[in-house]
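> forwarded from #structure-qc
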């Protein structure tokens, strides 16, 4: 088995890491900085074929997208919003078109802002996840807890809340998108949360807290969290989902202590 398969794989979040550049320039910049995998939050402002062409031109692989948002009605998604099931299905058809064109297999299903103890919201989310998993079985559905400081009112702000949803829906239908930044920003113990969440983790993201710039491995147990993730056998992607404080390429040095854990960049 190759080293690339046996290690964690960095993925540049084009929306945040290169958000200061025009959309067309982000792909080239990510490849120039050594990335082979990328995330895009909302790739819906161009055709799926346009995104596929950019990825192919720069030898990049899209590994994660979000379900669409709608500023006036569902600014943080709608998967858990009662009464919006048809809109969710319409949204997911757009997701599926992007994934089919680009080969992306993972989708962050955004739940939306609704009371965490609302039984109708929970049932709506479970039904929408079941429908999406059954309609597009080739896609990996992922749920992510978003901290209450940055996203007040989101349906879940703690990984354990997400895990309860996953336990109800079943491991084959969806998994956990575990973001170090959101866990720390929520004021939780990163190592404890990671230990509980490991069986459910399908994708990992990282940023420094609280400013969401480059991570500092000397703070918030980040270095030990990466080591524990590696020891546990996680071999998926690590999404660099932060806004650079300065030059992107120089800022990537934060990850140098992790080189023995990460797949080598070309």
């Amino acid at each position: 088995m190759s080293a690339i398969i046996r290690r964690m794989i960095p993925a540049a979040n084009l929306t945040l890491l290169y958000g200061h550049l025009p959309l067309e320039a982000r792909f080239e910049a990510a490849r120039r900085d050594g990335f082979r995998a990328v995330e895009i939050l909302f790739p819906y402002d161009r055709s799926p074929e346009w995104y596929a062409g950019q990825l192919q031109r720069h030898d990049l692989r899209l590994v994660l997208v979000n379900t669409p948002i709608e500023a006036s009605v569902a600014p943080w998604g709608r998967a858990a919003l009662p009464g919006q099931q048809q809109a969710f299905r319409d949204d997911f058809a757009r997701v599926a078109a992007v994934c089919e064109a680009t080969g992306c297999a993972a989708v962050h299903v955004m739940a939306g802002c609704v009371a965490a103890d609302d039984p109708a919201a929970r049932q709506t989310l479970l039904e929408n996840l079941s429908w999406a998993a059954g309609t597009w079985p080739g896609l990996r559905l992922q749920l992510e807890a978003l901290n209450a400081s940055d996203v007040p009112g989101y349906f879940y702000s703690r990984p354990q809340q997400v895990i309860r949803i996953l336990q109800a829906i079943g491991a084959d239908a969806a998994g956990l998108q575990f973001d170090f930044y959101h866990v720390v920003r929520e004021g939780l113990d990163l190592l404890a949360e990671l230990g509980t969440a490991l069986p459910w983790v399908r994708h990992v993201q990282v940023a420094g807290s609280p400013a969401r710039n480059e991570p500092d491995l000397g703070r918030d147990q980040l270095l030990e969290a990466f080591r524990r993730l590696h020891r546990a056998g996680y071999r998926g992607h690590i999404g660099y989902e932060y806004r650079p404080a300065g030059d992107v390429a120089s800022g990537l040095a934060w990850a140098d202590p992790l080189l023995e854990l990460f797949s080598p960049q070309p």
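QC bot note: DSSP finds eleven helices and eight strands in the chain. The first strand starts at residue 9 and ends at 13.
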